[in-house]
């Protein structure tokens, strides 16, 4: 049996094709391995990007919350300062008139500090035996007489001055 040249070339072609097929198969296995590795790396990159985005969002939210908290804190501090300023502006001297009888009345220091030089304007018709230059501690009072006549009614208010008062304060007198 003689080998035909055509058969030899055919068999050589088959062997070469088989070798190339095996090589291609090996290359595709290696490629598949790297493709899986690449897909895994891409998934990790996506996960990292998502975590980074979440962290950035949390930081932004925390920044907004922090900014909101700082703004609320500043507003609260401003309100406290306003309250303290209003408390400082509130008079520590306050007056109240109470009636003991139709003619007797008491001027009471309803404030929180001792007041000196307390004087009730006795030039108002009907104000008699008014205090003149007295000292009144908080809650203390001084008696005065309020009268009426044909010429005037019983006073409905009195004018009080004291040491440090810029001007007289009008204090209402309750009716009897």
Short description:
With 176 residues, the protein is an alpha+beta fold. It is built from 1 helix and 8 strands, in the order αββββββββ.
Descriptive labels:
4-stranded antiparallel beta sheet; 176 residues
How would you describe what is shown here?
With 176 residues, the chain is of the alpha+beta class. Helices cover 48% and strands 22% of the residues. The chain has 1 helix and 8 strands, in the order H-E-E-E-E-E-E-E-E. The chain has one helix spanning 5-89; strands spanning 95-99, 104-109, 115-120, 127-128, 132-136, 141-146, 157-161, 169-172. The strands form 2 sheets. Strands 1-2-6-4 form a 4-stranded antiparallel sheet, with no helix packed on it. A hairpin with a 7-residue loop joins strand 7 and strand 8. The longest helix is centred in the first third of the chain and has 85 residues, at 5-89. The radius of gyration is 51 Å and the shape is rod-shaped. The mean pLDDT is 84.
Secondary-structure element pattern, one letter each: HEEEEEEEE
Strand line-up of the largest beta sheet: 1-2-6-4
- Average per-residue pLDDT, rounded, comes to 84
- Coarse shape: rod-shaped
Main sheet, how many strands, which sense, barrel?
A: 4 strands, antiparallel
Strand portion: 15-25%
DSSP helical segment count: 1
> How many whole angstroms does the radius of gyration measure?
51 Å
User: Segments where pLDDT lies below 50 for 5+ residues?
Assistant: none
What is the number of beta strands? Answer: 8
Proportion of residues in helical segments: 40-55%
Please identify the oligomeric state.
single chain
Which structural class is indicated by helix and strand composition?
Answer: alpha+beta
Ends: how far apart?
A: 153 Å
């Amino acid at each position: 049996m003689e080998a035909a040249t055509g058969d030899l070339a055919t068999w050589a072609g088959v062997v070469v094709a088989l070798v190339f097929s095996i090589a291609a198969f090996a290359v595709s296995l290696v490629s598949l391995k790297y493709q899986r590795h690449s897909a895994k790396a891409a998934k990790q990159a996506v996960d990292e990007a998502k975590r980074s985005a979440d962290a950035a969002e949390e930081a932004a939210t925390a920044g907004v919350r922090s900014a909101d908290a700082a703004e609320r804190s500043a507003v609260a501090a401003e309100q406290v300062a306003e309250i303290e300023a209003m408390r400082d502006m509130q008079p520590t001297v306050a007056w109240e008139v109470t009636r003991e009888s139709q003619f007797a009345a008491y001027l009471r220091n309803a404030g929180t500090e001792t007041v000196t030089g307390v004087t009730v304007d006795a030039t108002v018709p009907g104000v008699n035996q008014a205090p003149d230059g007295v000292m009144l501690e908080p809650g203390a009072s001084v008696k005065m007489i309020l009268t009426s006549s044909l010429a005037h009614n019983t006073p409905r208010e009195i004018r009080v001055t004291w040491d440090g008062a810029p001007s007289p304060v009008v204090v209402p007198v309750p009716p009897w």
